[in-house]
Amino acid sequence: KANVMTNSDVGAFVLFGGSGDLAKRKLYPSLYLNFIKGLLPDDCKIFSVSRLSEQTQAFQADIFLQLERYVSPSQFSDEKAKAFVKCIRHVQLDITQVDAWTTLETHLENFRQSPIIYYLSVAPRFFGDIAKGLSSVSLNQNGARLVVEKPFGHDFESARTLNRELRLFFDEQQIFRIDHYLGKESIQNILALRFSNNIFESQWHAGAIESVQITVAETLGVGDRGDYYDNNGASKDMLQNHMMQLLSIVAMEPPFAFSPDAIRDEKVKLLRSLRLITPEVYADHCVRGQYVAGSGERGYLDDIGRDSSDCETYIALKAYIDNRRWAGTPFYLRTGKRLAGSLGEIIINFKPSNPELIRSKSGQCSNNQLVINFQPDQDIFLFINKKDNQSEMFLVDAARLQLSTKSGDLKLPYERLLAHVFEGDQTLFVRDDEIEVAWQWLDQLVVSWSAEGSRPHPYDCFSQGPEQANQLVTNGSGWERIK
Ligand code: NAD
């Protein structure tokens, strides 16, 4: 084991699963974007490790085509893509075979004096063997970094086992667990808005905030991921990882410093203070749903080719955080497939002015809202009331202030996250204890719905989700409509 060196003097990048779907759609394009911006070390070597039997030259030609396909035309250059693919070597090996590690060692012999990045874009069942294999030939030394993909476990026990397997051979400071939502511009902007503007941070508490809504909605169904999805559902696919990460960033206490561990300490603390949803309160705090045929689209069961399933394709929650800052403020979270729109947004609903002296044309004036969109657009809006200049009487209407700047091509999540791995900066990566606490909380939720014997409520394709979810929102004007 060895500590990570925080520099960009990386010797080589080894991509396990280098011929897979994630590598082709996201990882090579993101490496390419870092390459053209000069953020990769000069003479960086990328080793693609997979079972694919292909010579390096043919593999490079294939990756060139993938770049043409997945990089935006404004950033794609024939010449630069050719230069980039020349950095790639393809190494065919089966990581389950013992001789794999000496073969890999031979390839990496000239690079091992500098930090090597190992990106594990393979199924999690291989994580432990890869860590062990690398260590068997001392390739975990000299500032080596290990990047791991989701899913990281399927419950607390499995996540803890995975963490133990990795930490036998790598220090926590060497492990970068990916949650690509943390690479989104808007999500990082939450930290910027909160911790560099006193007007927000001074109002960031239950005294001023009525509720928070976090939504990740998709119009897509499960597609060809039916087998994986049916074992996991929306709770394990989206809630335990992405949504709990968003929640912890929105609600955490200010860290004592803007450093990876100070920030992650606060996120863990926040997740620990998230109230457990026990069987006794389950019915008032959680609604699960499953899409059924409608609007010309097949239902979930047809999509997965089964007669029955208790898997949720939608989940909505009313969650409470038991600390002084948030006592009494509900956090409404929902995520689902085949909903009326595709969007990711966080809405901070501030409390109304009290007493309300001035009204709007339609009656009450609107509450202030801070709206953070993180997909597909990355916009941030603040709604505030101003005098309605069209009215004879003294009335107000809401103005929408755009707080984000549309600045050309924003960095893609994987592009940004990879740049941080090259820098050795762990701020945007999930720590071992964070992932375990999030699983513990979710495990309790699963126990609660099992104890209740509750089944997912049906909802029509392209709807707002099951009607039962409306009962969760007990203050304000209900769920924001998904459009
Ligand atoms: P994939 O099936 O397309 O690719 C798997 C890769 O692993 C291939 O390159 C294959 O050759 C390699 N591989 C498999 N067994 C091997 C062995 N014994 N020795 C050497 N190489 C071996 O998978 P994917 O969609 O690219 O996903 C990879 C991982 O990332 C999975 O764990 C998946 O859950 C996760 N993930 C994928 C996506 C995505 O959008 N595809 C998103 C998030 C997370």
Low-pLDDT windows of residues = 1-7
Number of helices: 15
Question: Could you tell me the radius of gyration in angstroms?
Answer: 24 Å
- Share of helix, binned: 25-40%
Structural class: alpha/beta
From the N-terminal CA to the C-terminal CA, the straight-line distance is 50 Å
- Small molecules in complex: nicotinamide-adenine-dinucleotide
Widest β-sheet, arrangement of strands: 14-13-12-11-7-10-9-8-15
Total DSSP E strands: 15
Described by strand count, sense and barrel closure, the largest sheet is: 9 strands, mixed
Question: Overall 3D geometry?
Answer: globular
How confident is the prediction overall: mean pLDDT?
Answer: 93
Verbal overview:
- With about 475 residues, this protein is α/β, with parallel strands linked by helices.
- About 35% of the residues lie in helices and about 20% in strands.
- It has 15 helices and 15 strands.
- It has helices at about 20-35, 55-70, 80-85, 100-110, 125-135, 155-165, 185-195, 200, 225-230, 235-250, 260-270, 280-285, 300-305, 415-425, 430-450, and strands at about 10-15, 45-50, 90, 115-120, 145-150, 175, 210-215, 285-290, 315-320, 330-335, 345-350, 370-375, 380-385, 395-400, 455-460.
- The strands form 2 sheets. Strands 14-13-12-11-7-10-9-8-15 form a 9-stranded mixed sheet.
- A hairpin with a 4-residue loop joins strand 12 (about 370-375) and strand 13.
- Residues about 1-5 have low confidence and may be disordered.
- The site of nicotinamide-adenine-dinucleotide has 20 residues, from helix 1.
